[in-house]
Amino acid sequence: MSIDQNTAAKVAKLARIKVEEDALPALASEFNTILGFIEQLGEVDVEGVEPMVSVTPMRLKRRADVVKEGGQQDKVLSNAPDAREGFFAVPKVVE
Q: What is the separation of C-alpha 30 from the centre of its chain, rounded to a whole number of angstroms?
């Protein structure tokens, strides 16, 4: 897969990053380099390798999944700058 300047511009727009027109070729090149590294990772044989959580073997802490004090909606929403109909109200970010 190869990223051209138009695709790099589209990615920058989606990420809400301002990229000058003269910087698009360098950005497209960086994207292509990153995709090349990802393709190299796909070639690695991982057969028989167990997934790991950390570089040092450790067991994750677990707790019982128990429902505790509920019904505190008013208390939770008391510090919200804007709450409507029992929910947090936030500004619209999707155009």
A: 19
